Amino acid sequence: xxxxxxxxxxxxxxxxxxxxxxxxxxxxxxxxxxxxxxxxxxxxxxxxxxxxxxxxxxxxxxxxxxxxxxxxxxxxxxxxxxxxxxxxxxxxxxxxxxxxxxxxxxxxxxxxxxxxxxxxxxxxxxxxxxxxxxxxxxxxxxxxxxxxxxxxxxxxxxxxxxxxxxxxxxxxxxxxxxxxxxxxxxxxxxxxxxxxxxxxxxxxxxxxxxxxxxxxxxxxxxxxxxxxxxxxxxxxxxxxxxxxxxxx
Length: 248
Fold this sequence. Notes:
The chain is α/β, with parallel strands linked by helices. Helices cover about 40% and strands about 15% of the residues.
């Protein structure tokens, strides 16, 4: 987290009471960033990690309570095997390298998704990082890995159906609050703001239930170039909006 460190003072044009409590990011454009520079795609992913570390630092310093990053979707297994293997190794290495600083910085790390399908060594690092930071009271940093929004909803439905079948739950007891307890993100607040980089106008199966009323900000900037200034612009745009939650 040392790289890309931001000033702790909030920019003067951002009002603390109007900032999002929870920001989610779809980190898109790593491959295109690399291709435009004549570099292999893996270089884009490496730079993307540095961008994420910088935004996590900004979020922490500026008083944002939660940051959720879409690191690897359940559809990303369809990418070239070399790239997938690199990403799995990269995730594992970053966790080992950054964990002690995350502990010291009071960051609470959580991974969500179908984690059982990940390499066993990565699963072990994920489990260790969550155990080491579960008592931390600072920013809640959630990493969606092997995650799919539809998959998450189906998984929740199956778990609830099983409880009903066993007689542990009555159908009339099922409501939105109970349903959320069976999601991967149980206990995590809904995102107030979704930021998507690279100009793509879609949410890509990300947090489908949780983002019912999230504000969406799209920038043409590729993720490796998404820095403090870009984050500032996104937050400034957010605080100018009036959230209605379906009301007038």
